[in-house]
Structures are given as C-alpha cells and as structure tokens.
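Marked as duplicate of an earlier ticket. Keeping the data here for the record.
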Amino acid sequence: MRISRRSLLRRIAAGAAVTAAAPSLAEGSLAADAGRMMEPAGANQPGGAIQLDRNENAYGPSEKTIATLREAAKVAGRYPRSRSEDLRIKVASFHDVQPAHVVLGCGSSEILRMAMDAFVGPGKKVVAALPTCELIGQYAQRARAEVVSVLLSRDYSHDLHAMLARCDETTGLVYICNPNNPTGSLTPRQNLEAFLRMLPDAIHVLIDEAYHHYVGESSYHVSFIDRPVDDGRVIVARSFSKIYGLAGMRVGYAIAAPQAASLLASHRLLENVNVVAALAAIAALDDAEHVRTCTRQNADDRQEFLNQASARMAPTIDSHTNFVMVNTERPSVEVIEHFKRNNVLVAQPYAPLDKYIRVSLGTPADMREFWRVWDLMPHKMSM
C-alpha cells in the first residue's frame, strides 16, 4: 500500500521509526506479475552508495544483450574493425536512413563534443538553456567558445523566443535537450519547428534526445528522427546509456544530413566505439521488448516517486524522463550532503534551481532507502 500524507504526518508526529518505509507501487507490481522485471543483482552493492545521480537505467541491459556481452568478451582482444561499421549500418537501418546520415560516438557525450568542435570553436557562441546538460558548458570552455545561457520558461520548456533573440552572426550552434536534463521537462514539437523556420540559415541545431524513450507516444513530443524535417542544420543525438541500460559501454550516435554528419565525424576519436560495445548495442537495438518493458517500469517507478513526494508535500517538476527534480525547500547543497552522509548519491546542484535536487529513479529498494533518508531530515523538509 502507498504511504499517505496523513499517515506520514502521524508517523512523524509520533516519532515512529522511519525505517519501516511503506512498500512502493512498483514493488507491488513486480510481486504481482512474474513477467515484470526483477531488481538486478549488484546494481548497488551491499555497503556501497546507492547511486541516484547519473540517470542510469536501474534495471540494466536485457538478458539477450548480457548474453551478447559474454560472447563479445571473446573478441575483446581485437580492434573494432568492421564491428563499429556494422553498428552504424544497423542504426541506419533501424531509423530508415542511409549510413551516411549516422555518426557513432563514445556515448552521446562525444556527439556533443564533436558538434562543439565542428560548429562553434574560438570566438563563436553556442546558445543553450539554463539549466541544461552541463557538458555543453564544459565542451564550450574546452573549445574556447562562449555559452549564451537562456533561462527556461516558467513551465520549464525552452524559451525559444528568447533563445532566438540571442542568436547572431557569431552563433554556431543551438543546443536543445528534449526532454531536458535536469528538469525532465518537454518543449513542444510544433514550437521547435517554428523556431527552426525563424533561425538564421548558418546556425546548426543539436537536439539531444537521450531521454526520448521515456516520454511515450504523444503529438506533443515527436522525435526529429522518427519524423524528420527537411533541414540540413538539424542534428539529433541519441544514447544507449538510458533505456538500453548500456551506460558503462559508452555508445551514442547522431543522425544528421550527410554534410553535417561528415563534418561531425571528422572530429571523432579514432575507433571511438569498442568492439564489445558495438556488439552489445546491436543486440540492444534488436530487443524491442526490453525497451517496452523498461518504459512501462519507468512509468510505474516515476508515478510512485511522485506519490511519495506528494505525501510529503514536496513539489516536483513534471518529468518525462527517468529522473525527477524535487523541491527540498532549503538549499540543495545541504540536502545533497545529507544524502551523501547517508550513503545515497543524488546529482550536484543546478543553478538557478538552488532548492531542487535531481533524483534518478532506482529500483524499488533503492527508492525506499531514498525516502527513508529523506525522512531523517528535520521536519521542515516534510511538513
């Protein structure tokens, strides 16, 4: 049964032990349905910190992909050679494009770095939201470029009008993470299309769809890969680190027009996708059922998190991802340190949301511990 706001307040007032946390909805669903996913052994080792800070898939890769990983280890002594090209062809076929449209990366993070080197560089600017994926700022600094940060709208979507106003002849790239990290919020597809029509011709746009699979089917959000636009400036990044559960393998890719793809690829690392990662990613693309299962499981886990937050009267930002931003109503640095002292890791602070913490969704057991530690804080946090 779920914890209610009334029972939580009664428990706090009576000084009852918070270790007897209520079972989660997700756990109940797992017990009731033997076909649902089970918690993976060793996801958070006993005695180690519970890792809710990197937006990983808490349930890991599929059994089919794990089997491929075991077999792939036999060829780990070889350079990737044709295996990475096999993956590029597989990705192209999966998205019904030609291989010339596909660029592989060492995670989608390398795609971001390639785009910065290809389209920005010294004396140029990249326009991005604030807050958004922090890698953009890091790569801009490395490229001796400037980041023009534009605050998100009040509904946490990208303020595209303000972003357009900040674009000029020195702007080389606009970065749009959709759904956005760290807020988990969406920017409507129709707004993005209108933005592209008004954007100056020389500016490329990188749309980061790392969390696309968690959104679900909606006319409000349609992938720029699934329904492309006839615009050679648009680059779409995807990752195998999230829904596919291969964060440790470091595989990502971009879909772009051949000219933009070729320019991106000229800035990639040589043999940037290792042979084991390439084979695992091919297997992951073939396992559509695992993607559907993870999507359903994430929706259940996210709803349970929102239920628990609501019971504690903790405001959240509407999330379409596998993480949630929750308002702690106190400086986030203090809360992050509190969780760290109690062996739970959450993400670093994000300006200007200085009272929010970003919490990645873990297994039901992970989340029970998260809320137990939350409830250890002074009552101001829960009341």
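See parent ticket for discussion. The longest strand covers residues 171-177.
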